[in-house]
Every structure is written in structure tokens, then in C-alpha cells.
């Protein structure tokens, strides 16, 4: 018996040594947190969770987490009321994050945006032209723009009332000016727009209502809680918008059309919502409730994703690439294949064909600043040639150290944009790809862009915000790029 | 390596409550406290490093999404283990279409082992043990790894593997007995061969 026990003990020691040697050390906790913060940042953008407070800034202490980066790169809107500000840096970063969630999602996901996260009743609505019915009072935001030509285009946005509810609106560009169209969409946030040159297009939106019991006792200063009651699609054809239900069982959060007959979106399985994910996970069920939705043959078809994707681009129904923020994934004929892991954190990717595309991101470097908690980072751009994602040398003059282009907006293989937000006192990064060269393009002072769409070569429109020196957003803006210069056209 | 349960249950509950209030530092503290445990469990369940690390990260996203509805009076560790195990099962199922080259990651692990002063002896011993363990059923290998690499309690192994405690005990016993017997056989064969 004693002999058996000593044998067991010896074997156990040997097994411990064996596993230690064979498996090796697992990732350091700090590294795990970096990656988790990255994924959570992106997850929150895709499907915000109903915490009592606004989504915490996971990057407040996240060494090099994109959330922390993005939080610092985009300006802050005034909160309602001022006492709603959280304590400490986490609060500030969280508020910043909530702004960037609305803005940054565009590039990756063509317009998806979390709900109920913006304060800002101090914002001035943009003056409207040709509007028969004025927009309601509140904080106005442009969510996205999609041009079909240099003279025709669409923009969507919403106005957030003091009570927290949103009214979605659509503007149309024609005859050289933007006009508010009717109807407006009360209790609605429009999340994404994608139009085609043949005059067709799609908008995705979500209906909402205020929670009956916003739990005022615990956090009375918190904004009212919005409940998303469903998502829907608006289809534009033959000169009119037609409301359609989202594909059965899913909540669509974005839309991107490649042609009139093919497009795609990321969505969430409606019957495995965030509120029930934990329970089902503990029961051992699948918790990745993200869904790929493809528009083919006049119908939306759903399929699973291999992991929680944060940026996706399908160049055809059977070909595309995606990233989960850490690794590239290749989609081919219904199958997902894990590709290489990026040398840094990928924030966005886009393709112009099956053999041409770009990705952007950054590599964290060094320790976070003791004052700002920001982590030094080296931005990167990767070019995809049909086989590999290869880094492209970036002169510091284009994207200075610590600056970073978060989102990509490619017009063609010959032209595209890479945009980021402001970083401290530095202006937002904005790169223009033209004639096989990336170059920095200045923006009007205090402007940060959230989406860009080319109507023609060297002619683009963008949505964005004007922010003050302290980073507080005071106005939603539309801008026009022509003759090498961005100018404010509205706001 | 997995002594990472927060010592005071009340502290853990408070930590979770702070997370719910939006305290990012609290969530970072939670992740970093349990990162090693989650990593070890994942490596015990998923043979390859990259998908194991993916599974851990995805499990933390599940934690994040589940915390609003998680009953903070319940212990956090078993819930985390269940989420990690769930993600690992999915990773293993997904593995059939994984094409990532893991050679570099494996080389790192081997290089680390090489640094040991007694590297040569350890490598030889490990090679012998590897040969033996590879003859065991996958479930027994996992039980051994969860017990002696992730340092899980038997009940936790049951939770992770989705089997009753009694099955864990018998499976662990059989695994150890089989490993011991085969090691002895190997040794006998070596000694026998040497005497000829």
C-alpha cells in the first residue's frame, strides 16, 4: 500500500513535470487581458450588453486594448446631465468609447451601432433644407453615408431626444444639396445604409422603446435604459422605401451591398440574445450567436460564423475575408478557414475584389502612460494580394506613432480611405489611397469622420462630428471632398 | 499554477458588482486573476495552443455577456470553468477546418523545455511518458491534464468534462493505473532488451 502510494506520488510528480514541459506556460494574465479587451471592445460594438451602467471602458486599464485606443481617439459628447459622468478615468474612457462605438462600427460593419449610449441634448440639430416636417429637438447624429454617384447619395442619422429615444431620419443628396426625406422613423435607430448605382439600396435599423422601469434607485443619474424591440430592413427600389422584416430569428446590425443582387450583413441570433447567453453557455450550448446574413437571389440567407467576427468583407457570395480582431478568417464556398494571426490587433479590413484588399490596425508597444493610461502603439496597414496579408511600410509622417487609422472605406482598387479619430491634441488620422500611394489629407479643424463614401474618383462625402478642444462633441457634420480638400457642407 | 480563486467570496461578489457598475479595472482584475486557470484548462482540453487561447478569449467574452444576469452569490470559478469548457468543446469541433500552422507555437514550448538544466534527461523521460499517454483514451489524457496541469479539483473536472464525480474518480484511477502499468512495461522491455 505504501509502495503504491509512493508510486502514485512519483507518477503524479512526473506527470506534472511532463505537462509543464510539453504544454508549456500559458499566456500571461496581462496578455490575456489585452486580447480579451480587444475582443470585448469589438463584441460590445456588435452587441452591447445591458449593464446597469453604460458599457464599462474595458480599456481603461487595458494595456494596448483597442478599446482604450479607440476611446482616446474619438471625441466625447456632453453627457446628460453632467453628474452622469463616471468617476475616474474609466468613466471618461467609457464615455469616449460609447461615442466611438457609434462611429467606428461603420468601417467594419457598414453601420451597426449600439443603442442608447449617447447623451448630448446640448447638440444643435443641423439646419435642414427642403424638410416639410422638421426634425424633433435633440442631439443629432449622422450615422452613415452612401453615395451612388457624384450627384446622388444618401445619408442616415438620428436625433436623440432628452428622454433617450431616437428618431431616425434619411437625407438624400441631389441637385447639389442634402434634403431631409419623409417619413422619419420615431423610436428607431438607423444602423447602416448601402446604396447601389442602379438606384436600389438597403438601410438596416432597430426599433426601440424606453424601459418601463429604468431602475432609478441605484443609478438615478444614468440615462434611461432602451430596450431594442426588433430590427428591420428598408429596401429602396423604384423610388420608394419599403420596410421589410429582418431575416427570421436574427437581429441585423449592419448591411453592405456589393451589387443590387448580392450583399451581406452581420447579425445576431435573436433567440440567443445577450441576456440569455450566459445561461445557455453554462449549460454547454453554443454561445457564439453571431450570424452571417447574405442577400442572394432576392432573399436573405443566414449561416453561422466560426467565431465572433469584428470585421467582414465578402467580395462575392462565395469569397471573402474576416477578422476577429486577432486573426484573419477566410470564407470560401460556405467554409471558414482560420488564417494567420496578425502581428498586431486588426481593427478593420475591406476588399475591392477577391485578390485586392486592405486591413488596418496597430501593434501595442511599451507601457501605458501613467497619466493618460494610453498605450504607445505602432499603426500598420496590410495589403491583401489574393494570397497573403502583407505589411505596407508607413512613413511616420503619414501615421505618426500613436496615431492609427481605425477604419477603411475603399471605393475601388485604385482609391480608398483610412480614417481614425483624434489622439490627444493630435488631429484625427485620415489617409487617402490614390495612384497606388497613401497620403495624409488634412481635415477642417475639430472634425473627426465616422464614415466616408466616394461618389466618383476623388470625390467623396463623409459623416462626422465637430469636437471642441476638450474633446466634447458639439455638432454632427456632413463633409464633401473635392479638389483635394474636405469642406463642411452641413452642420 | 491555478491558485487563482479570489480568496474572499465576499470580495469576489463585490468585484462582480463593481463590474456591473461599469468598473473596467474590476473586470481586468477578474480576468487577470483567473487567466492562468482558464488558460491551463483550455490547454488541457484543446491540444493546440492557438485555438486554446482563442477559446479562453471567447469564454471571457461569454463572461462579459453573462455577468449582467449572473447571480453574484454563486461562486464564479465553476461558472467560468463551464464557459471555458464550452468554448473548448467548440474549438475542438472546429479544429477539423483549422489550417493554422502551429509549428512555431510548439517550437516555443519545446525551446522553453530545452532551457532546463536537466533538459536532456527530462526530454527522455517526457518522451517515454508521451508514448505512454498517447496510448490512453483521449478522455483519460484530459483527466490527467486537468488534474496535474490545471490543478482542478475532481468535482471541477467533472464540471468541465460534463461527467459525474464518480466517473471522474474512476477515469482518473484507470488513467493512472494504465500509465503506471505501461511505464513499467516499457521499462521492463528496455531492461529486457538491454540484458540480451
Brief sketch in words of this structure:
With 491 residues, chain A is an alpha+beta fold. Chain A is built from five helices and 30 strands. In chain A, helix 3 crosses helix 4 (88-109).
If you had to describe this structure to a student in words, what would you say it looks like?
- The complex is a heterodimer of chains A (491) and B (196).
- Chain A has 491 residues and is an alpha+beta fold.
- Chain A has five helices and 30 strands.
- Chain A has helices at 2-23, 29-46, 66-73, 88-109, 274-282, and strands at residues 139-147, 153-160, 166-174, 177-180, 185-186, 188-195, 201-210, 226-237, 240-245, 250-252, 256-257, 262-269, 290-296, 299-304, 311-316, 319-323, 327-332, 335-341, 345-353, 356-364, 377-384, 389-392, 407-410, 415-419, 430-434, 437-440, 447-456, 459-467, 473-482, 485-490.
- In chain A, helix 3 packs across helix 4.
- The longest helix of chain A has 22 residues, at 2-23.
- Residues 52-130, 214-223 and 272-286 of chain A have low confidence and may be disordered.
- With 196 residues, chain B is mainly α.
- Chain B is 76% helix and 0% strand.
- Chain B is built from nine helices and no strands.
- Chain B starts with 8 loop residues before the first helix and ends with a helix.
- Chains A and B meet through helix 1, helix 2, helix 4, helix 5 and strand 18 of A and helix 2, helix 3, helix 4, helix 5 and helix 6 of B.
Q: Topology of this protein?
A:
The complex is a heterodimer of chains A (491) and B (196).
Chain A: H1 2-23, H2 29-46, H3 66-73, H4 88-109, E1 139-147, E2 153-160, E3 166-174, E4 177-180, E5 185-186, E6 188-195, E7 201-210, E8 226-237, E9 240-245, E10 250-252, E11 256-257, E12 262-269, H5 274-282, E13 290-296, E14 299-304, E15 311-316, E16 319-323, E17 327-332, E18 335-341, E19 345-353, E20 356-364, E21 377-384, E22 389-392, E23 407-410, E24 415-419, E25 430-434, E26 437-440, E27 447-456, E28 459-467, E29 473-482, E30 485-490
Antiparallel strand pairs in A: 1-2, 2-3, 3-4, 3-5, 6-7, 7-8, 8-9, 10-12, 11-12, 12-13, 13-14, 15-16, 16-17, 17-18, 19-20, 20-21, 21-22, 23-24, 24-25, 25-26, 27-28, 28-29, 29-30
Chain B: H1 9-20, H2 24-45, H3 49-66, H4 76-94, H5 103-114, H6 119-134, H7 138-148, H8 154-161, H9 165-195
